[in-house]
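Translate sequence into structure tokens.
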Amino acid sequence: MAHYKFETKWVFDASSSATMDQVWDVLRSHEYEKWWEGVKAKVLESGDESGIGELRESFFKTKLPYTLSFKNRLTALEKPHLIQLEAYGELEGTGTYHISKSNKLIEVIYIWDVITTKHWMNIMAPIMRPMFKWNHDQVMHQGAVGLAKHLNMKLVQG
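Result follows.
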């Protein structure tokens, strides 16, 4: 199995409207298809009263000719600063959103620490790793653009 650790940074100028709470709420929701191109998610199991334990199934259509699907369970929620999940399926590992604000900028750092379980991806990892990173970056950029548009923020970095 091939291991990947990606760190993505999104920076938004939120001087016009959006708050950290709104960014957290949108990232916490399972309604990605409303704002993130090529991404769908559905809730399979509810979590506790705070949402911890919620199980979702996510589907990512990538820029390369393949789709990734995996289940993810919410493991930590600290509004408006943190969302953490554990992934199972074609990708296994953890994903963590760190959300902060400085002046009029909202920063989202996403750390995706996973292994691939698709046989072909593991075989191709030694030569395709740079393309898999590029693909990840493209999917995450689509998320940044969609979130900025959805919350009427200017994307500064992402």
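Note: The chain has two helices and eight strands.
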